[in-house]
Amino acid sequence: MADDTREAELVTPAADAAPAATVVVDGIAPPDTTPGVVPDVPPGQDQGVPPVPARRGLRALLPRRSGKLTAGIVLVVAILLFTFVAPFFTQDPRSTANERFLPPSAEHLLGTNHIGNDIFAQVAYGGQGSLMVGLVAGAIALVLSIVFGIVAGYRGRFTDEALSLVTNIMLVIPGLPLIIVISAYLQTRSLLVVAVILGLTAWPGAAIVLRMQAKSLRSRDYVSAARVAGERTPRIILVEIFPNLLPLLTAQFLGAVLLAILAEAGLSFLGLGPSGSITWGTILNQASANNALSLGLWWWFVPPGLLIALFGCGLALVNFSLDEIINPRLRLGPAAVKSVRKARKAGVGAGDDPKETVAA
Amino acid sequence: MSTLEVRNLVKDFTIRKGLRRTRLRAVNDVSFTLEPGRTIAVVGESGSGKSTVARMIAQLETPTSGEILLDGTPSATRGRGLDAYRHDVQMVFQDPFASLNPFHTVGHHLERPLRLHEVARGREALDARIHELLERVNLTPAPVFAAKQPHEMSGGQRQRVAIARALAPGARFLVADEPVSMLDVSIRLGVLNLLARLQREENLGVLYITHDLATARHFSDEILVMFRGNVVERGPSDQVILDPQHEYTKLLLSAAPEPANHGRLREEVRRELAAAGAGEPADRDRFGTRGL
């Protein structure tokens, strides 16, 4: 009922506003505007909005196309396609029916290893394992950094103190030794266990960045305005603050995936990786354990190493173009440097001839 | 009679400097009563506590002591009581570039309070109400503006969106914290006239926070002059402006850019500097507030 009455009040503003036109505000009689409307804003002056083809909503957050982004996406997508499509066309990566130490040939594109596994099949299949570890660890790190970063930053006070304490403790614990200790302690390690361990140690840095960002965002007027409007805290975090952190979160997620893949390769190389699974790291571990380098068996260690490097490079390139959204000055930086250089060449720079100014 | 009353409002901020903690009294014993259809202006320089008063009334800060009474009952600070309070008391922020979330459309900004305060339900009713609000603040064609992002609009347009948002729940009292100080001089009057028109239409009680004495006189019935957290002078607006009693009010008035005062402040500063140069300590405690 209350709603109805208010609606009735609001539905007839024109009738209420009509007498208002006769009220002369500030001694200025309303000019030839339609009666019933006080000329709050001169028409045509303020209404003219430049027809900029603006990007809306989520699209505004997408990076603009650039060489970096294209190269990064091509690398990442190509490697993803390779690891998920190639296994359908290769033999079983665990098959030992082949000759040992075969060099690359038409039949075995990347030759075979010490027990006759086809290395092309191993690399393709191992990519899935590496990516799985990366994604799971990245997701865990993302969730933890959101909880410990954004919630701490927004809530402040006691929550902040408690969550920051945990973050700081995790931050100063050296990551790799901890992972090595945990991995050595666990006798059998599945891919998932390794991923969880990596995820649990990868979040504190991101959490600290997010906490500072959330602290700055929460004092923005639009967050206060949402509180005045009556929004609840979880919704303010998710709807008002979260979207403004999306580019940062994406960059952190990609960074965490990249770090997890590298860390998994490192662990596997040390022999502490997932037992019984194939990843790029375990292939490298086997290669080094069997003296592939001194025997000159390049087809054994180069492909997995190269794939790790290229995939990391691709993710890093995508991340760089995301950085340009977070900090637009990065995008303008190279152009600014170029224009300064050009100006200097043309002899119009301000600081190009300090000697002459001194001499003069 | 519905009123918004503020009684003996005090706000202390704790300033941590290393291990030492000092307390800063931002607002000291402020009381006034806001009635529908009337405007009270709070005037003062930066740091005089006027925005803190606004934020306390909007329940963004908790008063150290004192109370805020809506229709004679103390306002709740949480839960349903707070929702009910916010249904009646809304706020317009100073900076229209900061008070709208750059991520969301104008429609979203208006839709949320409508939903939260259950003014309208369902897509069609909501859209109709959003368009109506936009038309009332002269943002037409409304459907076009509802779909816009904040960064596609000028400062004046944004501030009008902010005003529409404050009106959305059907508020009876509006706290306007320097609503035009961030706007172009050329559109300030337009936005103030808009506020005045909406006030007449809805019989709003408006708390107008400003540092501009001229607009305070034009748009308010009563003026409170604040200095370092204290209300140093109050009264009907014409009386305060035409017959200032307190030294600080006189200074504020003389600082206003008026042709007759041209050069006076400069002379004053020169005199003070000359006095300081002569080794004579300038009297910095003109208002008797040093001990506060």
TrEMBL record, chain A:
Transmembrane segments: 69-89, 131-153, 165-185, 191-210, 241-263, 297-322
PROSITE patterns, per the entry: ABC_TM1 (PS50928)
SUPFAM superfamilies in UniProt: MetI-like
Membrane topology: Multi-pass membrane protein
Keyword Cell membrane belongs to the record: yes
Compartments where located: Cell membrane
Disordered, as annotated region: 29-52
Recorded GO CC terms: plasma membrane
Low complexity bias: start-end ranges: 29-49
All copies of domain ABC transmembrane type-1, residue ranges: 127-319
GO molecular function, a single term: dipeptide transmembrane transporter activity
Keyword line: Cell membrane, Membrane, Transmembrane, Transmembrane helix, Transport
Family under the similarity heading: Belongs to the binding-protein-dependent transport system permease family.
Protein name: ABC transporter permease subunit
Lineage of source species: Bacteria, Bacillati, Actinomycetota, Actinomycetes, Micrococcales
UniProtKB/TrEMBL annotation, chain B:
Ranges that cross the membrane: none
GO MF annotations in UniProt: ATP binding; ATP hydrolysis activity
Composition bias type Basic and acidic residues, residue spans: 281-292
InterPro entries: AAA+_ATPase (IPR003593), ABC_transp_ATP-bind (IPR050319), ABC_transporter-like_ATP-bd (IPR003439), ABC_transporter-like_CS (IPR017871), Oligopep_ABC_C (IPR013563), P-loop_NTPase (IPR027417)
Ranges for domain ABC transporter: 4-253
Any one GO BP annotation for this protein: peptide transport
Region called Disordered, residue ranges: 273-292
UniProt keyword annotations, A-Z: ATP-binding, Nucleotide-binding, Transport
Source species, domain of life: Bacteria
Xref: Pfam families: ABC_tran (PF00005), oligo_HPY (PF08352)
PANTHER family for this protein: ABC TRANSPORTER, ATP-BINDING PROTEIN (PTHR43776:SF8), TRANSPORT ATP-BINDING PROTEIN (PTHR43776)
Protein name: ATP-binding cassette domain-containing protein
Organism this protein belongs to: Cellulosimicrobium composti
Organism taxonomic ancestry: Bacteria, Bacillati, Actinomycetota, Actinomycetes, Micrococcales
